[in-house]
């Protein structure tokens, strides 16, 4: 009986590992991937070679991608703001080599 319990426990553990690996694979696309897809949508729409229904679907996807890109940019801007804040006061530093 002890052996059966251990086999069941191992199977559950393996299933959990598989589930975790699948969850990791479904991560959200990067800013660059979203931007590239958005650019491709714009090109397709500008060509005018898609139906009205396809245009509306592409537009809807474009809005979603735009929002995702805006969110990523806002998060990056916040990180930069945190990095340039020093001792409660903002210090701007040039990027030029001195």
TrEMBL record:
Residues 35-86 form a coiled coil. Its EC number is 3.1.11.6. Keywords: Coiled coil, Cytoplasm, Exonuclease, Hydrolase, Nuclease. InterPro entries: Exonuc_VII_S, Exonuc_VII_ssu_sf. One of its GO terms (molecular function) is exodeoxyribonuclease VII activity. It catalyses: Exonucleolytic cleavage in either 5'- to 3'- or 3'- to 5'-direction to yield nucleoside 5'-phosphates. GO terms for biological process: DNA catabolic process. Pfam families: Exonuc_VII_S. Its main location: cytoplasm. HAMAP family: Exonuc_7_S (MF_00337). Belongs to the XseB family. This is Exodeoxyribonuclease 7 small subunit. It comes from Methyloglobulus morosus KoM1. The gene is xseB.
